[in-house]
Design a protein that fits this description.
The protein is mainly α. It is built from 7 helices and no strands. The model is unreliable at about 175-203 (pLDDT under 50).
């Protein structure tokens, strides 16, 4: 794992990777769960926003960026938690559910893109900026896409969530290969430095 260049410090990349896997799993559940009730759909969409908040909190506390950018991530995480609570109490209001999820993703995307732009020293800042822009696009799509019924909304959010989870896993589990050297390193080189043979004297 030498040469890691992820956006997190220390072992926090493992938490980010777990959040990405959770996003993929939740997206699959939204996409393939047959005959979901209104309460179940609300719960799953609320969990979607809670995963958004978890990612933002991980970036806020363990991200490789300046303090004020971490503060922005923290504020956006708190907003995502508030939107998740509203999402779980929206009742049979498809438009409200789409609005809460869309706003949460748009805030997350804007903050992620701004973080990448204003923190160029962050490893993989270009990839993080693209991730933010795609998240913003996903939020806009959920808000404006003509959807018929909660099943359609769940399918759209599920597809977007699977793609976002894949990007999160890619961001956190990316490993930069070690620099190439001119000479190849064999098994002896991995075990340790080769001892130089002692010079033989001439009688």
């Amino acid at each position: 794992m030498a040469g890691r260049t992820d956006v997190f410090t220390g072992d926090a990349w493992q938490l980010g990777c777990a959040i990405g896997c959770g996003s993929v799993g939740l997206g699959v559940a939204l996409l393939v769960w047959p005959n979901k009730s209104v309460a179940v759909t609300e719960l799953l969409l609320g969990l979607t926003l809670l995963l958004t908040a978890a990612w933002q909190l991980a970036v806020a506390f363990r991200g490789r960026m300046s303090g004020w950018l971490k503060g922005m991530e923290l504020v956006s995480a708190l907003l995502s938690v508030l939107l998740a609570l509203w999402c779980m109490r929206s009742g049979d209001w498809q438009s409200l559910l789409a609005v809460w999820v869309g706003i949460g993703w748009m805030i997350r995307g804007i903050v992620a893109a701004m973080t990448a732009v204003w923190s160029p020293r962050t490893p993989g800042s270009t990839r993080y900026e693209i991730y933010g822009l795609l998240t913003l696009l996903a939020g806009l799509m959920v808000m404006v896409w003509p959807i018929d019924g909660l099943a359609g909304l769940g399918a759209l959010v599920g597809v977007c969530l699977i793609m976002m989870g894949g990007m999160e896993i890619r961001l956190t589990a990316r490993v930069r290969p070690p620099h190439r050297t001119e000479s190849r390193v064999g098994v002896r080189g991995l075990l340790g430095p080769r001892a130089r043979p002692a010079a033989q004297g001439v009688d």
